[in-house]
Design a protein that fits this description.
Enzyme class: oxidoreductase
CATH architecture of the largest domain: Sandwich
GO biological process, one term: L-tyrosine catabolic process
EC number: 1.13.11.5
Shape: globular
CATH class of the largest domain: Mainly Beta
Cofactor: Fe cation
Bound molecules: 2-(3,6-dihydroxyphenyl)acetic acid, fe (ii) ion
Helix content: under 10%
Distance between the termini: 60 Å
Number of domains: 2
CATH topology of the largest domain: Jelly Rolls
Family: Belongs to the homogentisate dioxygenase family.
């Protein structure tokens, strides 16, 4: 159990810029943290009167009766209970943020697709107005599937807060720096890091360095967890201690504000008179965290052949069918290539799962050109894909000495469900019309004679 105390500058400041974010290590630990001494009750959750006049409130991330190893909840001790924050809800429109099921008859999703980076806009865009849905999969109403988004953020949310009742958000920054001021503490996030924001957690997003662009995987289903390592053992891949959960930090701020809620794909707004980020102390295992992708320790082939990319899974969100994820988050980062007599890049492939990829920086080995930082690609359920002609020719003729793949970080959101393009992805976003031509010049080498061509 971790215990750490931070007296937060959030309390005084009108925004939290300038405060120091502090973190506790571990994935899914039972944490405890207080921003004021003795704010956290000891030995019980519901004292008749909590210290400082705080209200106790539980945030349940799983059903009460979920098996113990999956059961997640957090006890918050806050200046006002959340229910004081909810008055009448009014429907608002965020036209670019879409939710499954969202199958558009005039949009074709069957195919291989690739996009250049969505350019920054000259408008002021917040975390909410700057979210651009690219694909949706599954059904939010039955809590299965996901959506992939690009965010373009230039403006901090001011006296404005948000939570998603629909989903947990996995945030993968590509440009710029953001600060997530959450009920449970502050997370500063930059490229090469990721963050997980649990379903139901209230937060405000500030721009520390803009413009900011990145990718989001919105998970409607069971939470992301660390994959079992099997025979790899107790170490390597993503190690639990490299996940960082913020220490408690609170705002005692009275100001006319809004809270926007995403609920079954709809957005509603309510007005409140104070900051809802008023949790002075908390304990539990349902909390946001961040993770530095540079601490991911890749394990791979050290003699021959190319393993399935699941070897690079950072996080997996189960679907209920064992081994068939609702979402796998897979990382292709710097590593040594040493396999002998082997075609080293990804092989040609058709997959029952749907593969959405994004480039954080550098060059991806199967697509040395055209898949650029900030760009995305989609190889949907059972649609063939693989190295382009240049990658194939290069790798099948290469001198197979040990080689470092340097300056490379791409990722995949892989889901068991087909992914449907939004109108934005099919129309407004910079779709590369000529993407499939990258395979057009692949040569027939077969002439009936044995031997390597
Ligand atoms: O580039 C892709 O499509 C992803 C991918 C990577 C890999 O190493 C093996 C198979 C695969 O589909
Ligand atoms: Fe693939």
């Amino acid at each position: 159990m971790n215990k750490q105390t931070l007296i937060s500058g959030m309390q005084q400041a009108s925004t939290s810029v300038g405060t120091l974010a502090g973190y506790m290590p571990g994935f899914g630990n039972d944490f405890e943290t207080e921003a004021l001494p003795d704010a956290l009750p000891q030995g019980m959750n519901s004292p008749q009167k909590a210290n400082y006049g705080l209200y106790g409130e539980q945030l349940s991330g799983t059903a009460f009766t979920a098996p113990s190893h999956q059961n997640e909840r957090t006890w918050c001790y806050r200046i006002r209970p959340s229910v004081k924050h909810t008055h009448r809800f009014e429907r608002i429109d965020l036209p670019y943020w879409k939710t499954a099921p969202h199958v558009q008859n005039d949009v074709t999703s069957l195919g291989q697709y690739r996009w250049d980076p969505v350019p920054h806009s000259d408008q002021d865009l917040t975390w909410l107005t700057g979210m651009r849905t690219m694909t949706t999969a599954g059904d939010v109403n039955t809590q299965v599937g996901m959506a992939s988004h690009i965010y373009l953020v230039t403006k901090s949310m001011e006296d404005a807060y948000f939570y998603s009742a629909d989903s947990e958000l996995l945030v993968v920054p590509q440009e710029g720096r953001l600060r997530f001021c959450t009920e449970l503490g502050i997370i500063d996030l930059e490229p090469k890091e990721i963050a997980i924001l649990p379903r139901g957690l209230v937060y405000r997003v500030e721009v520390l360095e803009g413009p900011a662009r990145g990718f989001v995987c919105e998970n409607y289903g069971q939470k992301f967890e660390l994959p079992g390592r099997g025979p790899i053992g107790a170490n390597c891949m993503a190690n639990p201690r490299d996940f960082k959960t913020p220490v408690a930090a609170y705002e005692d701020r009275d100001a006319p504000s809004t809270v926007t809620v995403k609920w079954c794909g709809q957005f509603h707004e309510t007005k409140i008179g104070h900051s809802p980020l008023d949790v002075v102390a908390w304990h539990g295992n349902y909390a946001p965290c961040k993770y530095d992708l540079r601490t991911y320790c890749p394990v791979g082939a050290i003699l021959f052949d190319h393993p399935d990319p699941s070897i690079f899974t950072v996080l997996t969100a189960p679907s209920g069918q064992e081994g068939t994820a609702n979402i796998d988050f897979v990382l292709f980062r710097e590593r040594w290539m040493v396999a002998e007599d082997t075609f080293r890049p990804p092989w040609y492939h058709k997959n029952v799962m749907s593969e959405l990829m994004g480039n954080i920086y550098g060059q991806y080995d199967a697509k040395p050109k055209g898949f650029i930082p900030g760009g995305m690609s989609l190889h949907n359920m059972m649609l063939p894909h693989g190295p382009d002609r240049n990658a194939f020719e290069g790798a099948s003729n290469a001198d197979l000495k040990a080689e470092k793949l340097d300056n490379t970080m791409s990722f995949m959101f892989e889901t068991r469900f087909p992914q449907h393009l939004t109108q934005f992805a099919a129309g407004e976003a910079p779709l590369q019309d000529d993407y499939i031509d990258c395979w057009a010049d692949i040569e027939k080498k077969f002439d009936g004679t044995p031997g390597k061509k």
